[in-house]
């Protein structure tokens, strides 16, 4: 293990480390801390339930789910976008899509929001339990959960299959920490969490979302970290013997088994090994280079500030903590930090790993800085704790939209449920006045328009679109020179444009004389192609006939 500080150091807040006090039991003494955690999880659920269902790739996934249920098969090509049918489809999120479609069929669009809130609060409840196992402190577990939310905030507010993958990541970290805790306590580790639990999580994760490779990375870091520690412990007997000792170490072999079984479990999917190839090659897709969430992180961009803040907190904690840093934690932190810096959306997986790494050191500092709060272990009144949790849970439930039907409140208006980014007013107009096709539109509205029965030009699955088609889209969407020739080549009859993001194209269409406005509101503008004027030959022929 790596030492995060000198082996002999005075308390981080001055003075020697306090001795462990005798255990004292006072009924109800620990209730306020548990109330804090209960209130936090209630707040997570409440806020999550109020998040709008924005016009994102959610609707593409819901549409795929309905297609799968209707056809009882997985699509081989994109079923929503005709221009994307050239590329074979490996549907890495098919199980999440089916869940979304089943939830909508059972309870309507509103229940997609409710389901998201339930998945979100379950994820952070499991993370809080994981952090408690590491720290044996409810306060530190609460702080770890808060840290995971703050660092990963840029990825939390969007409803997508990634939410199910985050739940799988939380369960896997729970299994990892449980095994570490048992070993550190001198207990004989149970075999089923690594031998059964981890492979089962990986099997489900591989069918929920393509990020299952992050779970394999966690298991791989645990295996390599344990092997390095075992070899380091036996370093005095020579390099060759130390390596042999690391390979025969019981815990190393358990982690090796978990890695092999986990990797094999991910092959239990409709595509087999093709799923691995598709997932690993996805990031290199040419069309993704200009998409913000697939670009390298910047300090002022999405997630940049929270990532930088997390490293400041981490360095301060490591500087003053006397807890050793397990090699596996160091490897995970380095790997997920590197991927987050190189790819914005990877901060969703960095956030829980960061919290897991920092929590043991935060617990050490907490015990030394606030000995009066940690020297005595309390046994709170179980009935009082349960009553408090039930009360706070009911308050969160009552304030959340999920309780509207039970408490007799009106459900949220459609505009509030879908959020300001969804072109609701435009949708009403298009239902009453179906646009002549083909249609050009902002890519970020493509999934929603497809849901409304309009054949999209592109959707969020831009990796399925041929590169030349994507270049044509970006040329037109930006209003660059030659855009009119591109829309003529595709036979576009209607332009649906975002007033906030496509002002250049709107002005160019208005000046061209080939397009006439058909609709506009504060969010969108619709142009339809003007009828071509009759040619002179046609006019002359008409006069001769007369």
Note down, in words, how this protein is organized:
The structure is a single chain. This protein has 546 residues and is mainly α. It has a domain at 423-529. It has helices at 31-50, 58-71, 94-107, 110-135, 138-151, 153-156, 162-184, 192-208, 212-233, 239-248, 250-266, 274-282, 304-320, 327-342, 347-369, 371-374, 382-399, 404-407, 414-418, 424-432, 446-451, 467-477, 483-489, 503-512, 536-545; strands spanning 2-3, 324-325, 439-440, 494-498, 515-520, 524-529. Strand 5 and strand 6 (524-529) form a beta hairpin. Helix 1 packs antiparallel against helix 4 and helix 4 packs across helix 15 (347-369). The N and C termini lie far apart (98 Å).
The count of DSSP E runs of length 2 or more, i.e. the number of strands, is: 6
Compute the number of helices. Answer: 25
Mean pLDDT: 87
What's the main sheet like?
Answer: 4 strands, mixed
Structural class: mainly alpha
How far is it from the N-terminal to the C-terminal residue, by CA? Answer: 98 Å
Helix content: 55-70%
Percentage of residues in DSSP E strands: under 5%
Characterize the overall form.
Answer: globular
Strands ordered across the widest β-sheet: 3-4-6-5
Report the C-alpha radius of gyration, rounded. Answer: 28 Å
Runs in which pLDDT lies below 50 for 5 or more consecutive residues are: 1-30, 537-546
Helix and strand topology:
Elements: E1 2-3, H1 31-50, H2 58-71, H3 94-107, H4 110-135, H5 138-151, H6 153-156, H7 162-184, H8 192-208, H9 212-233, H10 239-248, H11 250-266, H12 274-282, H13 304-320, E2 324-325, H14 327-342, H15 347-369, H16 371-374, H17 382-399, H18 404-407, H19 414-418, H20 424-432, E3 439-440, H21 446-451, H22 467-477, H23 483-489, E4 494-498, H24 503-512, E5 515-520, E6 524-529, H25 536-545
Parallel strand pairs: 3-4
Antiparallel strand pairs: 1-2, 4-6, 5-6
Helix pairs in contact: 1-4, 1-5, 1-17, 2-3, 3-4, 4-5, 4-7, 4-15, 5-15, 7-8, 7-9, 7-15, 8-9, 8-11, 9-10, 9-11, 9-14, 13-15, 14-15, 22-23
């Amino acid at each position: 293990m790596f030492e995060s500080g000198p082996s002999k150091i005075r308390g981080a807040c001055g003075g020697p480390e306090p001795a462990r006090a005798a255990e004292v039991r006072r009924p109800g003494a620990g209730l306020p801390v548990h109330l804090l955690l209960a209130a936090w999880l209630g707040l997570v659920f409440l806020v999550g339930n109020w998040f709008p269902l924005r016009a994102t790739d959610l609707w593409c996934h819901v549409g795929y789910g309905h297609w799968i249920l209707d056809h009882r098969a997985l699509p081989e090509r994109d079923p929503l976008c005709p221009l994307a049918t050239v590329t074979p489809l490996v549907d890495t999120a098919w199980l999440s899509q089916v869940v979304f479609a089943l939830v909508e069929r059972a309870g309507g669009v509103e229940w997609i929001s409710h389901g998201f809130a339930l998945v979100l609060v379950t994820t952070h409840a499991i993370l809080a339990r994981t952090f408690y196992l590491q720290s044996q402190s409810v306060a530190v577990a609460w702080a770890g959960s808060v840290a995971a939310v703050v660092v990963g905030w840029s990825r939390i507010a969007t409803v997508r299959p990634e939410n199910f993958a985050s739940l799988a990541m939380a369960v896997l970290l729970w299994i990892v920490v449980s095994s570490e805790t048992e070993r550190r306590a001198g207990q004989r580790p149970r075999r089923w969490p690594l031998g059964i639990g981890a492979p089962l999580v990986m099997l489900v994760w591989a069918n929920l979302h393509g990020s299952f490779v992050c779970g394999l990375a966690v298991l791989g870091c645990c295996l390599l970290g344990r092997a390095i520690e075992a070899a380091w412990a036996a370093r005095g007997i020579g390099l060759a013997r130390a390596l042999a000792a690391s390979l025969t170490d019981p815990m190393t072999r358990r982690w090796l088994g978990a890695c092999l079984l986990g990797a094999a479990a991910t092959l239990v999917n409709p595509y087999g090994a093709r799923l691995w190839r598709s997932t690993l090659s996805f990031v290199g897709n040419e069309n993704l280079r200009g998409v913000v969430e697939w670009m390298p992180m910047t300090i002022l961009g999405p997630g940049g500030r929270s990532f930088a803040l997390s490293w400041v907190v981490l360095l301060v904690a490591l500087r003053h903590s006397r807890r050793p840093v397990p090699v596996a934690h160091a490897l995970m932190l380095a790997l997920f930090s590197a991927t987050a810096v190189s790819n914005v959306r990877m901060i969703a997986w960095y956030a829980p790993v960061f919290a897991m790494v920092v929590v043991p050191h935060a617990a050490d500092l907490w015990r030394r800085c606030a000995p009066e709060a940690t020297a005595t272990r309390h046994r709170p009144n179980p009935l009082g704790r349960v009553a408090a949790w039930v009360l706070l849970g009911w308050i969160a439930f009552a304030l959340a939209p999920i309780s509207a039907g039970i408490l007799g409140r009106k459900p949220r208006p459609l505009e509030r449920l879908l959020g300001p980014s969804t072109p609701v007013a435009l949708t009403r107009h298009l239902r009453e006045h179906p646009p002549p096709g083909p249609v050009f539109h902002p890519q970020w509205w493509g999934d929603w328009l497809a849901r409304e029965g309009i054949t999209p030009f592109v959707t969020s699955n831009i990796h399925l679109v041929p590169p030349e088609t994507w270049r044509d889209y970006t040329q037109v969407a930006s209003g660059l020179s030659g855009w009119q020739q591109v829309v003529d080549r595709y036979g576009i009859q209607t332009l649906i444009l975002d007033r906030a993001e496509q002002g250049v194209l709107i002005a160019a269409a208005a000046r061209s004389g080939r397009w006439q406005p058909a609709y506009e509101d504060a969010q969108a503008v619709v142009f339809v192609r003007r009828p071509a004027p009759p040619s002179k030959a046609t006019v002359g022929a008409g006069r001769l006939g007369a």
